[in-house]
Amino acid sequence: MTKLRPMTPTDAPAVLAIYAEGIATGHATFESAAPDWVHFDEGKLAAPRLVSLDGEGGVTGWAALSPVSSRCVYGGVGEVSVYVAEAARGKGLGRILLQALVDGSEAEGLWTLTAGIFAENTASIRMHEQCGFERLGVRCGLGKMGHGPMAGRWRDVVQMERRSTVVGID
């Protein structure tokens, strides 16, 4: 059984290490390096922020939301980030984290979650679909990759969205 709990500042080294592992794949983000904790923390909503733990209490993954805009009208919209440690991938942990993030976002009053996923990352696209996200379209050649196996190539990003069925939209 996977144990989840809220992310705390003491998780920073593990969270940033897992983020760096994801970055190294070249299929997770345009970012080329994990930020320091201060910048990571400033770029995420206060809640929900989750970590998954192994049987010994070690962090195996994390999930958090970033604001999509500073404008108040977008206060109920968050952009999803889910990262799983290399050693824990392929076991369904990402889906567990994402579903818990969805549930936590609704408890916080968010009505829309967004995700931008590299088109080649079919496992992540499938995971988001399993958690109620729909494909909105593809942003072709959104950015030029600066690192990893696709360095120098323009990347297509699949835009996905999940509208809450719990938090009402009038």
From TrEMBL:
Residues 2-155 form the N-acetyltransferase domain. It comes from the Bacteria. Transmembrane segments: none annotated. Coiled coil: none annotated. Pfam families: Acetyltransf_1. Keywords: Acyltransferase, Transferase. One of its GO terms (molecular function) is acyltransferase activity, transferring groups other than amino-acyl groups. This is GCN5-related N-acetyltransferase. It comes from Maricaulis maris (strain MCS10). The lineage of its organism: Bacteria, Pseudomonadati, Pseudomonadota, Alphaproteobacteria, Maricaulales.
